[in-house]
Amino acid sequence: MKLSQNGMSLVEILIGLTITSIVGFVLVGIITSSNSFFIDQTIKVDQGLSLNTSVREISDLIKSSGGVVSQYPISGAPQYQSGINVLVLKLPAISATEQVIDSVFDYAIIVKEPIDSKVLRVKVFPDNLSSRKAINKVLSTSLETIKFLYLDTNNNQVSSSQAVRVNFIINLSDIDGLADNESSSSGVVNIKNN
Questions:
Q1: 58: pLDDT confidence band, cut at 50, 70 and 90?
Q2: What is the C-alpha to C-alpha distance for residues 126 and 123, in angstroms, rounded to an integer?
Q3: CA distances from 85 to 52, 155, 168 (A)
Q4: Counting CB atoms within 10 angstroms of each CB, which of 4, 12, 145, 190 has the fewest?
Q5: How far are the Cα atoms of 90, 186, 190, 194 from residue 103, in angstroms, in the given order?
Q6: With pLDDT > 70 as the criterion, what percentage of the chain qualifies?
Q7: Cis peptide before 78 (omega within 30 of 0)
Q8: What pLDDT is attached to residue 1?
Q9: Over 50: is that where the pLDDT of 174 sits?
Q10: Percentage, residues of the chain above pLDDT 90
């Protein structure tokens, strides 16, 4: 007895659909996993770059400063006060010929923004006689905490205006779905011109 083989049976079609569905689910799982891994790695790279930039810029400002001051502006009502989340530095003013102007200072502020606490910002306010440019720059948009400690030569904690070195700790945090990506760095920097 001969059977006619003109098409596919219902069983063959169901087996083909089942295999196709399983392969589809596996592929979707692989693509989703790869995408999640890519996003996680991208966040970590961005966070690392932001952290490196922040540490470098803060260290450079401290090294080039003439010291920590308690507030900015120096007289009158303060807009910024040196403390645990704010660092106010006086920078020697520079003339148009790149020479230091005696007894004239520009001021740099490193601050955790009060309105958006995830933003770490550096601001530079030049004196009218200085050729230094004003700066208002975001260092990071994933700030968790920043902490400044003011130290003397023996690494004892002192008031901000007595500091000869500054210890800072920066923690960054980004939430990606359910995962929390964190990174941190710290440094102790001597004030060069103090």
A1: very high
A2: 10
A3: 19, 19, 10
A4: 4
A5: 11, 31, 21, 13
A6: 83
A7: no
A8: 47
A9: yes
A10: 46
Residue 131: half-sphere exposure toward Cβ, Cα within 13 Å: 8
Per-residue pLDDT, 137: 93
Quick one: tokens of 79? 């807009």
Tally of CB atoms within 10 A around 12: 10
User: CA separation (Å) from 109 to 21, 80, 96, 146, 150?
Assistant: 59, 8, 23, 13, 15
User: What are the tokens at 94?
Assistant: 């520079």
Q: In a 10 Å sphere around its CB, with 0-12 CB exposed, 13-18 middle and 19+ buried, how is residue 139 labelled?
A: buried
Are residues 65 and 89 in contact, defined by beta-carbon separation less than 8 angstroms?
A: yes
Q: Which residues contact 104 (CB under 8 A, 6 or more apart)?
A: 92, 93, 127, 129, 130
CA distance 116 to 183: 19
Q: Are 171 and 144 in contact (CB under 8 A)?
A: yes
What's the mean pLDDT when you consider all of the chain? 85
Per-residue tokens: 179: 């995962």
Q: Which of 2-11, 40-49, 68-77 has the highest mean pLDDT?
A: 68-77
Please state, in angstroms and rounded to a whole number, the distance separating the CA atoms of residues 74 and 170.
26
Is residue 62 within 8 Å of residue 89, measured between CB atoms? Answer: yes
